[in-house]
Every structure is written in C-alpha cells, then in structure tokens.
Amino acid sequence: MEDLLVGIDLGTQGVRAVVSDATGTLHGQGHAPLTSHRAGDRHEQDPGQWWTAVGLAVRTALETVKGHRVRGVATCATSGTLVLTDRHLRPRMPALMYDDLRARDHNPLDKIDPAVWTRLGVRPQPSWALARIAWLREHGLGDSLVLHQADFVTGRLAGRPVAADTSHALKSAADPVTRSWPPEVLAALDVPDGALPELVSPGTVLGEVCAAAAEHTGLPTGTPIIAGMTDGCAAQLATGTLDVGGWNSVLGTTLVVKGVTEHRIVDPDGSVYSHLSPDAHWWPGGASSTGAGVLADAFPGADLAELDAKAPLDQALGCVSYPLAGRGERFPFVRPDAEGFMVGQPRDELERYAAILQGVAFVERLCFEHLAALGAPVGPTIRVTGGAVRSAAWTRLRAAVLGRALEVPEVAQPAFGMAVLVAASTSGMTTAEVAREMVRVERVFEPDAEVGKVLEDSYQRLRAELLR
C-alpha cells in the first residue's frame, strides 16, 4: 500500500475516483454527482461543477489511505465533450457535451481533402467534436482555449494549461501517430494559433499536482499527472483486454465494442475508428445505438429479473427485433436515418422482451463479423462489461449467439482503468503486462452450441432484413 494509484472518471452523471495498489486491490472509492442542462439539441454542463465533483470524489477515495505515497493520477472523460476557457482555465461558457447536436451541420468535412481522412484512418461523423470546434469558431474564440473535458481537469490539477492526450483528441481530428493537428484540419477550422492544446501520447507525464489542487483534492503536492484516455478506452484498460485479438464488449445504455490489433483498421463506412494505445497497438472499435437503454422505454418499471426468468430467451421466436435507442445508427454501419423495427408479431410481452434481448445480441454478433471482415482478429473469448452483465440470463444468451466464452472482470470501472495506466506509465512495464498483475476475471459464461443453432435462423432473418 505504499504505492497507490489514483484514477478519475468523468461520466455524464457523476465523477468517480478509485485508489488501487499495484496488485489491483481497491483501497478507496469516491463518487460525486453531476447535473446537465438538456433542451432540444442542447446538452451542457458547468465545468466548475466538474472540478468541484473531482475534489469531492478524490478526497472520499483517499480518506482511508492518508499518509501513503501516491505514484500518480490519471483522468478519463467522455469522448467529444469540449469547454471554452481563458488562459487561466476559467470557463467562458457551459461545456458542450459529447451528444450536444447544435454543431451537426457545422462539420467541415467538405472543406478538407478526403485524402486527409485516408491518412488518418478515420472519417469523422457529424456527432464528433470536430464539428463542435467549427461551431465554436463561428461564434467567436478570441484568445480562448478549446479544451477537451479531461484537459480541463488535468490543467486544474497542474494549475496551468497542459497538453491533451491523443485519445481524448481523436474525435477532434488529432493525428495519434504524429501527435499533431493536421494542417489541413487547422486551415479548415481557421482556429487561432494556440487555441488547441499540444498533443501527447496517453501515459505521458503532463506535470505535477499543484498546491491549490492538492488542497482541493487531497492528493499530495507533486503527484505526477498522467495523460489519460477516453472513458471507452479506460474501460478497456480496466478489463485487461490489451493483447492482440482481445475484445471488450460494453453493453450499457448503448453497445460499445473495442479490441486490439497490430495494424490500424480502416473502415470506408466510418463506423470503426482506432485509438493508438500506450503499447503502440491499435484499439479499433465502434459504438452502436442498440443497447439495454431500449428496455427502459419498452418495459418502464418492469422487474427485469422476473422477465429474465420467464421469457423464452433461448428459443426461436415468431418475431425478430432490431432494438434501436432513438434514431440513427453508428456501428456496424453508419445511417443517421436508421430506425428500430420488429419483424413479425410477438405473442405476448414475454416474447417481445425475448426478441429485444436476442436482437441486441444479434447486432453485437453483426458488429464482430463486420470487424472480422475488415481484417481484425477476434479471439475465442470476449470480456464483457456494462450494466447488462448483471443479467446472467442475457449474458448466457450473448455467449450462445456469439459462439464465444464471455469473461466478466472483477472490477470494470473506467476509473480503475486509469489506475492501470498510471501503473504502466510509472513502472516501465507495458499496459498488457501491468494488466495481467492487476485485472482479475470474476465469472466466465461458456457458449451453449445448441442454443446457438436454435437461434441461427433468427439471426440470419435479421441480417437479411437489415440488408434489405
């Protein structure tokens, strides 16, 4: 316990902090809530509230381990959230959250040579931060700084503006290989010199915790501040899915899949994009709009555990569902106009429930088949996280549909992933080596081949309907 690792996770609804040792044992956790303002296309948060919540969460996490040395602290945050500040990190307006849609018509794609995206291996989607930067530019930047959510917090920890990591900046069109802003992008955005932060690789030491931040958070003055990664990448670190061919599937409100390859995976459709890991591997992945969030709308107030027990999850049904949360799809294909549907009529509510759970599993399989078709290796086991793993019945169903063993890690918090990154950054070991020491699997769901055969026709029916 002499060497403690602190990870911070800025989520949409709150800030979480964990304190871990190098064996992966948690010694402290803290949480502080966040509130948002939503109205139509607008989704904003108060950056000052971020900093207040960080102080409360970290102080709570450190409460039981006072006096022990902290080896470092790293922060993950939502991908694509931006805040405009002055040169002293004072916010000049509310933060534009990752799903604020006011900038969707400001994406400067038509001003940039397509060869740039070929070189970068991505194609920015309308919801990416790149469009928000263009929107902010049109509304006047002056001498402001355009920071990602994590940049704001790490800057406050250091007491000065610091560099941005290429992971949080990926959706702003940062080049993770050269750690630079492509000149064609800067020209198209027409942002003033110095408005965007310098770029570094995740795991880089950005500075040290200043005296004011130490007073606010309880972190020792001089604690190294480590450049982090997005919340999705942090979740991957927490699962220990860091070897080539390994994948983490996060089934929460939506479905997010991320894995490890030696070479960057390029998807002409733009549904797959790749982060560059601290180990110089590529982490391709995508985020679907299907997910467990559909259940809240379809079965409000229902006892989902009871539905799990009674629904015919492992049976072929007379209907098949494409359960989409809201409008638009991002992965395994990009269609802003996509809408969910049900083919055939369920006999009752139990069959409708089963069709939705099967439909999510079918989309998950389609995602992995799309990745394999692009050349990404997919190993025999997949680590699974997210709120849906609380349903053992659903997880067994997913294992049968995917035909792979599903492993549930003991700790899957993104904040813990940041602790793993701190350990790697300060030890000289790779993140994969560190993860083998820190990450433990709690439960394994083996695939039931017979159930997989029973559901095969339903999967092919959904696939054919999507193609049609």
TrEMBL record:
Residues 26-45 are annotated as: Disordered. The keyword Transferase applies. Residues 251-424 form the Carbohydrate kinase FGGY C-terminal domain. It is an enzyme of class 2 (transferase). Its EC number is 2.7.1.-. Pfam families: FGGY_C, FGGY_N. Residues 5-237 form the Carbohydrate kinase FGGY N-terminal domain. CDD domains: ASKHA_NBD_FGGY_SePSK_AtXK1-like. Transmembrane segments: none annotated. GO terms for molecular function: kinase activity. Belongs to the FGGY kinase family. This is FGGY-family carbohydrate kinase. It comes from Allokutzneria oryzae.
